[in-house]
Design brief:
The chain is α+β, with helices and mostly antiparallel strands. It has 3 domains: 2-146 and 250-299, Jelly Rolls (Sandwich), CATH 2.60.120; 155-243, Orthogonal Bundle (Phosphomannose Isomerase, domain 2); 313-407, Sandwich (Jelly Rolls). 28% of the residues lie in helices and 28% in strands. The strands form 4 sheets. It has a 9-stranded antiparallel β-sheet. Strands 2, 3, 6, 8, 9, 10, 11 and 12 form an 8-stranded antiparallel β-sheet that branches. Strands 17-22-19-20 form a 4-stranded antiparallel β-sheet, with no helix packed on it. Helix 6 (152-162) runs antiparallel to helix 7 (168-176). The longest helix is centred in the middle third of the chain and has 20 residues, at 195-214.
Amino acid sequence: MELLRNAVRPYAWGSRTAIADLLGRPVPTPHPEAELWMGAHPGDSSKLVRPDGTEESLLQLLGADPAHHLGAECTGRWGHRLPFMLKVLAADEPLSLQAHPSAEQAAEGFEREERAGLPRNAPDRNYPDPTAKPELICALTEFHALAGFRDAHRTVRLLGELDVPSLRAHTGLLAAQPDAEGLRALFTTWITLPEHYLRELMPELLDACVRHVREHGEFALECRTVLELGEAYPNDAGVLASLLLNRLVLQPGEAIFLPAGNLHAYLHGTGVEILANSDNILRCGLTPKYVNVPELLRVLDFTCADMRVHKGESLDANLTVYRTPAEEFELSRVDWSPAASAPVRLDSGGPQIVLCTKGGVRLRTQDGSLPDLQLAKGESVWLAASDPEVLATPACVDGTAQIFRAATGN
């Protein structure tokens, strides 16, 4: 049971206030701060902070003593690798439109690029590792996202409402086959449009979206999103693709799970994200980075439906668990209030990372074999698989506190 020091990633789309405020630092920050990484990623591993102030890389410790830190079950499934990462993600601007491969697609793609001799850090590399990258994001603030292909019938209605002359033939393509195959055909058409054609049709699309917003139409939120993306990424095919996706607004505590093949983009807000420890990303647009259209089409899942919003499963007055099919991770949330301040047992049988996002929390082992540890807002702790069972209680005067716990999946 040891405190972690974690890396802050300064991507351009990040916030100048959210992560700094969580960590108790002055705001605004000089530069955007996008992600707080907790875990053992090779690119920026967390450090374990010893009582004497010295630090050790979690990544190196896992390699040196996997039995202690990961346990037999985790090492049997994942080797010396911690299979999950925990992040705080803070977006003031949209992230790229992207999808992630399945385990089989990742293994095949990684082997193919290895045989081709493509460097793992090459900008046109699609598979820097051979693992899947499912992820779940839970909102800390109101959180806006695009995720998963909307029901095709509703998309036909949206395109009909906009009635963009240059897109009428495309609308007819989907109207004639309002299903996954029709969406695949329309998406493929749009993502491969020549740049000169995009330059011609984009003003028509943006004008139609302005009219729809002024008329308070059914799809005003979707149209505002198109206008925002069109301003940030003019003549980008990803702006067109956004018309096909579910537009979501998550309230604090709500989450979405993004399995393999789900096309998505985070737009704005702060959330706790848990994901498999992988870097495999297939980009679609809204980015200057490399887009491999054939590989993207191979990975995408064109199943069209409403995107499920997870509210979590309440196990008691304090504990909420976000269950997913992902084997690599499970996220849970603990909330304390003056009316519900009972201790919560953190017993997963494997490695865990615990992050305090509100108030303060005291952690103690039931057998008293380790010193108690107090977490302030923004602090996190590593619980090794061999650590004794830990109890968490609020440590603030009013009894209000919140933590998120990352563990391996079942």
